[in-house]
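help with this:

***
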Amino acid sequence: MNTATIPATQRLTNSALWYGLLITLLGMATQFLYFLRPSPPISHLLPWINLSVPGIGLFLLVIGLARAFRQPAVYRGKIWGSVLTVIALLLLVGNVFLFRQTRSVPRSAGAPQVGQRFSEFTLPDSTGQPTSLSQLFAASADGSQPKAVLLIFYRGYW
């Protein structure tokens, strides 16, 4: 069948636009992976995943948009494809902006340094029982005394 004779009601679905929309939405959903508290190897890759997935979606949207404008008699999506491409572009620009801004967060001047001695404190442990720093340095049941205590401060996302 000649593509010039295809009626407007029988035009082909522009699958690149649909896949681009789906992947762009998936890219937005990857922002919520931070709340799952992933393991360190994956959490190290999350910012790059958050940048690349919307970029792939935008690339597919551009392909679908080019297809819709080059062959309007065959493929649909000139108007809504244009709108989706602009929205995806704005989302990608926003992701890149936030990515760059989070890298420029200054280090805390008041944060303890590695090897710095801490003053005595008491905090609840994982079971809710109060535990002091001196208890952590006390001799254990086998008679050995710990040489160090590791304190981890989570900056968190909330």
In short: The helical segments are 15-29, 40-70, 78-103, 133-137. The two ends are 57 Å apart (CA to CA). Residues 3-103 form one domain.
